[in-house]
Design goal:
alpha+beta
Length: 269
């Protein structure tokens, strides 16, 4: 999940999804920031690494994969990385004029930010101040080890409560509604975190953070922070006529139709 997963894992994900349906939490209503999210400042400097190396046949678009060598040590954390970026945007302020703190205090501050309710942003007067850095990108470049240790384990990706939704049909009508919902969230100044999936094939099973959009007669053009790529924003398009989302080719996905739904925003997700 976190990139592309082999098909043999679908039953395990289905079981995990069904186990999580009963969880609950309040809906986010406060703490929206007035400034825009900036790629390269509000994103993390490191990537969710890929366990596999993918090859795409240019003639057929068929994808194959093999295990990376040497094996990367930070994989399957796309939900953790995407959520951490939103948690810092919603719940933290940076003070570059103040001196950096020691490791113990740095861990404590990170924990305060990421353990806040992900569906209920902190109001400005309760946001956590991170001294010594101007933004999340510079902070994560200097304190990569601590952030990877404190922002969440791989199990927080496997057990994200919203996984139950992908096992039910994501119809064209649903996707049209979702496109409007995501655009509405962005108009309100919220950052929707989304699950990008093709079920049951699981040719993609991934998390991203949407932070901008524009509308045309033919499409809604979204811009996303992809945890797999800290260097480039990712464009995704909702085609109005087809009522479907399209994702471009990446180093882990051959490109084409994807299904999308929002997570971390209500008691069900």
């Amino acid at each position: 999940m976190y990139s592309v997963r082999p098909r043999s894992h679908a039953p395990t994900l289905l079981l995990l999804a069904l186990l999580l349906v009963g969880c609950s939490a309040p809906t986010a209503t406060t703490g929206i920031k007035s400034r825009p999210f900036k790629f390269g400042e509000d994103t993390l400097a490191y990537a969710n690494e890929l366990l596999w190396q993918y090859q795409i046949d240019p003639a057929t678009g068929k994808m194959t994969h093999q295990t990376q060598s040497p094996r990367p040590d930070y994989t399957h954390h796309c939900f953790v990385v995407a959520l951490a970026a939103r948690q810092f945007f919603n719940n933290a302020q940076f003070d570059p004029a103040a001196p950096p703190v020691d490791e113990k205090e740095c861990r404590r501050l990170i924990d305060q930010v990421v353990k806040a309710n992900p569906r209920h942003p902190l109001p400005p007067h309760h946001q956590i101040v991170i001294p010594g850095y101007s933004n999340l990108f510079s902070f994560s470049r200097a304190e990569e080890r601590l952030l990877k240790q404190e922002c969440g384990s791989v199990w927080e990706s496997y057990f994200q409560r919203g996984h139950w939704r992908m096992i039910f049909p994501l119809t064209r009508s649903h996707q049209e509604h979702m496109a409007r919902q995501l655009a509405g969230r962005l108009k309100e100044g919220r950052l929707p975190l989304v699950h990008v999936v093709r079920f049951p094939s699981l040719s993609i099973n991934h998390a991203m953070l949407f932070y901008d959009f524009k509308e045309t007669d033919e499409a809604i053009e979204f811009t996303a922070y992809d945890p797999n790529d800290p260097k480039h924003p990712l464009p995704l398009r909702f085609k109005r006529a087809q009522r479907r989302f399209l994702m471009p080719r990446t180093n882990y996905f051959p490109g084409g139709r994807v299904d999308i739904y929002e997570i971390f925003y209500s008691w069900k997700y």
